[in-house]
Write a structure and sequence with these properties.
This protein is an alpha/beta fold. The chain is 26% helix and 25% strand. The protein is built from 9 helices and 21 strands. The strands form 5 sheets. Strands 6, 7, 8, 10, 12, 14, 16 and 17 form an 8-stranded parallel beta sheet that branches.
Length: 407
């Protein structure tokens, strides 16, 4: 593996820096902005998958830090920050340029660097590889409406297709790596105390509440309560935990997503489930973090993506490992959703992803489509136990029909 994964990176930086001036023309210097403020503004102007100018993810060679079971999440984070600061000092790189640090899955950090600094770090014997940070977004097809209320409980067709809802009685949790969750939605059992926010400044940092709606929709498919209102989820009533890595725009950074994976890997228990209905271009760092977190017994459900392309081109959908499941989408006739990514491997199962009704922000409900919607069906099944199958999806474009997941 190349240590500096920067294909055609520095040529686009000239254009990106001009865009940065346009975005931040009211600021005296981009370098003086907090990283999350940079990302929060950038997602408005940059598309999903775009490189964040001057921002990098540095992955170190494993030291065994994450294997020290006597150390909690905060202790590991503190130890990794000290290690990182020491490494940066060798190259006279200011600590103020450091953003996220990771120690419980991959070991590494995200940081602002010049081209020369990135090349110098890549040649350090402690560094495994470096790649550019990017914008990552939700794996939803189309733009949703504003949502609406509900007067009586209905069972969405996708829940019926995977075998129906079950009132969850276990103690495991569903971590939702997404835009947050509507914290006081009457149809969800939200455990905000176990949550995590990758944003450390700006409006998205102020709460784990969902300013977009996407994370709440995912949570409802997994675990909406079996009551007299709204909808019902696969593992009805299970705890859903907001891991806020995407903002109100539905976008975030790869570095922030890895921070969320790192937190789940550190605090989750074997049998817990993590849902990642998001994605962007291939990232070795994102994939490595998912596989490392899943090795702890946490089950990861990953969206294949909605670009009608091979899933091996995207992350985290291309991640492969024990307890890692990538999900494509189908409609109510068991036919392939035209937008869904494909490829075996890494796709493991197909699930309902067209016209899926679920919970929404502000106590509402909404019907939307995407592999984002297919993935939580599988996450709910995983929370209940093992995945079974019932036939295969029709018209799979790769010629190897994906098995349809059921409980």
């Amino acid at each position: 593996m190349r240590k500096l994964i920067l294909p055609n990176l520095f040529k686009p930086l000239a254009v990106a820096s001009v865009l940065g001036v346009l975005i931040f023309s009211c600021q005296t210097s981009n370098e003086n902005l907090p990283f999350d403020a940079l990302s929060e503004l950038a997602v408005v102007k940059f598309a999903n998958g775009d490189i964040i100018p001057g921002k990098f993810i540095v992955v170190l060679k494993p030291s065994g830090l994450a294997l020290r079971k006597s150390m909690g999440y905060e202790e590991v984070q503190s130890s990794m920050r000290k290690t990182t600061v020491s490494l940066l000092a060798k190259y006279r790189i200011a600590e103020s340029t450091l953003d996220q640090v990771y120690g419980n899955t991959i070991e590494g950090f995200s940081i602002a660097l010049t081209e020369e600094q990135a090349e110098a770090l890549a040649n350090d014997p402690a560094v495994s590889y470096i790649e550019p940070d990017r914008i990552m977004g939700i794996a939803q097809k189309g733009r949703p409406g504003g949502g609406g209320g509900s007067t009586g409980q209905t069972t969405p067709w996708g829940i019926t297709r995977i075998g129906g809802a079950v009132n969850y009685t276990g103690s495991n949790k569903a971590y939702i790596l997404d835009s947050g969750i509507d914290l006081d939605h009457p149809d969800l059992n939200v455990n905000a105390n176990a949550g995590f926010n990758a944003f450390t400044s700006g409006k998205d940092s102020r709460s784990l509440d969902d300013g977009n709606g996407h994370g709440t929709h995912v949570a409802g498919t997994i675990a909406a309560i079996n009551n007299s209102i709204g909808v019902v989820g696969v593992a009805a009533g299970a705890q859903v935990v907001p891991i806020k890595v995407l903002g109100a725009t539905g976008s975030g950074s790869y570095s922030g997503v890895i921070a969320g994976i790192n937190y789940v890997g550190a605090t989750g228990n074997s049998g817990d489930v993590a849902n990642m209905s998001l994605g962007g271009p291939f990232s070795q760092a994102v994939n490595d973090a998912v596989v490392a977190a899943a090795s702890n017994g946490i089950k990861f459900a990953l969206a294949a993506g909605n670009e009608s392309q091979n899933t091996n081109n995207v992350s985290p959908g291309s991640a492969n490992g024990t307890h890692v499941y990538t999900v494509s989408a189908m409609n109510s006739s068991d036919s392939w959703a035209s937008f869904s990514n494909f490829g075996n491997p890494p796709v493991d199962y197909c699930a309902p992803g067209v016209s899926i009704q679920s919970t929404w922000k502000s106590g509402g409900y909404n019907t939307i489509s995407g592999t984002s919607m297919a993935t939580p069906h599988v996450a709910g099944i995983l929370l209940l136990g093992n995945i079974n199958t019932d036939g295969t999806v029709k018209n799979d474009p790769d010629g190897t029909p994906d098995p349809i997941a059921v409980r």
